Amino acid sequence: MHYLKPGAIYVVYLFAGQKYHSVYISPSMVLLTGLAGSYPHLLQLLKSDTLFVLPYGKIGKKAHKEIQNLKNWEIPGQASVLYYNSRLSDFVLSYLEEIHRDNRITSVIIIQIEAFISLIQQFPEKPINVIEQAQRMGMTPRALENAFKSKKGITVLLFVQQRIEKAKLLLLSSDDSIAEISFEVGYTDHSYFSRAFKRTTGKTPHEFRKEN
């Protein structure tokens, strides 16, 4: 949805034989102002002093049907004005509810991912199973991985392994004890740290330091 201030110029190029990819409607300011209290996105749009664009979305079956009804309406006069205003109101409401719902879903996912990250950081000794974690969060493993990567820039596995990579550097660049390095990379139990290190590298911390 675009909002243009009065007098603004917006150029659209249409080509014969090409499918239309956008729908342009002109809801009344009274309608938009009345809905702004319920939809934060719309309130932000109305407060903008320049061109403001709400998220694009695919047109669903319901919206296609509304558009088709608009195209086929033939009764002239005041009835047309009332009919079009009603249909446009439904169309705008449907769109706003969709992006509002998507925003709520995104917010919930962000909260879940942040809690998941905190869990990994606080309890590094706890095994991480992405499939089981995704089920608990109500999403697919792929969706979990994508959301996690969007937040941290790396996969769940690499995030978990970061501690081991940091431990490798400390083992080679410092004289700190295994227990001290274990604590520094987040493991309160240095015995578990040694097992995790060997599971990842094939060597115990002591063997890794000695051989390198």
What does this entry look like structurally?
This is Helix-turn-helix domain-containing protein. GO terms for molecular function: DNA-binding transcription factor activity; sequence-specific DNA binding. This protein has 212 residues and is mainly α. The chain has 3 domains: 2-105, no CATH class; 107-154, no CATH class; 157-211, Homeodomain-like (Arc Repressor Mutant, subunit A). The protein is built from 10 helices and 2 strands; from the N terminus they run βααβαααααααα. The protein has helices at residues 29-35, 40-47, 61-72, 78-122, 130-137, 141-152, 156-173, 178-184, 190-201, 205-211, and strands at 2-3, 52-53. α4 crosses α6 (141-152).
What does the overall shape look like? rod-shaped
- What is the helix/strand order? EHHEHHHHHHHH
Helix content: 55-70%
Sheet of most strands: 2 strands, antiparallel
* pLDDT averaged residue by residue: 77
Q: How many domains?
A: 3
Indicate the structural class: mainly alpha
Name the strands of the widest sheet in spatial order.
1-2
Amino-to-carboxy terminus distance: 60 Å
How big is the Rg?
28 Å
Low-confidence segments, given as residue ranges, are: none
**What is the strand tally?**
2
Helical segment count? 10
User: How much beta, percentage-wise?
Assistant: under 5%
Characteristic terms for this protein:
212 residues, mainly alpha, Arc Repressor Mutant, subunit A, two-stranded antiparallel ribbon, 10 helices, transcription, transcription regulation, Helix-turn-helix domain-containing protein
